[in-house]
Amino acid sequence: MKAFVTGIGGQLGYDVMLELARRGHEAVGSDLKPPAVPLDITDEAAVSKTIAQARPDVVIHCAAWTAVDAAEEQENREKVFAINERGTRHLAAASRAVNAKMIYISTDYVFDGQGERPWQPDDAAFAPLNVYGQSKLAGERAVEELLERYFIVRIAWVFGKNGKNFVKTMVNVGRTHDTVRVVNDQFGTPTYTFDLARLLVDMAETEKYGRYHVTNTGGYISWYDFTREIYRQAGMDVRVIPVTTEEYGLSRAARPRNSRLNQDKLRQMGFAPLPSWQDALGRYLKELNQE
Q1: List of residues 6+ apart from 19 with CB closer than 8 A
Q2: In terms of pTM, does the model score above 0.90?
Q3: Residue 78: how many CB atoms within 10 A of its CB?
Q4: Rounded to a whole number, what is the largest CA-CA distance in the chain?
Q5: Residue 250 has what pLDDT?
Q6: Does the annotation count 14 as an active-site position?
Q7: Domains of the chain: which residue ranges?
Q8: In 22-157, where do the E strands start and end?
Q9: Tens digit of pLDDT for each residue in 85-120?
Q10: Three-class DSSP category at 70
Q11: Cβ distance 96 to 149 under 8 Å?
Q12: Which CATH number fits domain 2-165+190-217+256-275: 1.20.140.10, 3.10.105.10, 3.40.50.720, 3.40.50.800?
């Protein structure tokens, strides 16, 4: 199998490339900067030419605008949609032209974030609360419009080695502060990119197309719960104070209260679920310590 992976400078794309190599698959990685194949996914002609030259069996689309608060700024909105919607559309069209399947990485932010019921992959309660979510939903629709052979994989609360994330931030804050305030009314489950990459390659090796929800297992938690476990496993003596979203303030973009993603479809389709988030966090903290 030959794969073309976008966004290999980010957390997920980096781990996907490693997983493909571990399995002996040929992989071409792209990003805006070397040593990756330089590719601006907002340039339709460049995308078409690059995919035509690579002729992959699968395009794994990890590149995205992910700065949720910055997406709300008026001067950024056009760029957010250029990357997350039109860039995705260009890749879907190029994939169709070479008869490649496509894996599109999406997000819990496509839903309205209300209630407590875990979201099902085929729920249609789309009402994104912010520009980022709107742009990712638009990307999903582009994939569905142009392709028949696709996986839409929604993830949440991502952490990995190659980039910024909540775990790194909390560890760094804990080194300089003895108290932190963290919201306790937003619920979901973390996703470790090392584990996610394994499942994405599992999917790429099949024809089991459709929408999926993927996070680590281990139960639904709040950011407050996650933070307490980070400090417990890291052996850091930091007091974590629970606050509401309103009390925390600061965020420009509205955040979903309910990011619970139901993963029953994974098992039904024969895919192995990811390990527990507690186990994933332990492995990740060891990796950070080794750095």
Answers
A1: 197, 198, 200, 201
A2: yes
A3: 9
A4: 55
A5: 72
A6: no
A7: 2-165+190-217+256-275
A8: 26-31, 37-38, 58-61, 101-107, 150-155
A9: 999 999 999 999 999 999 999 999 999 999 999 999
A10: helix
A11: no
A12: 3.40.50.720
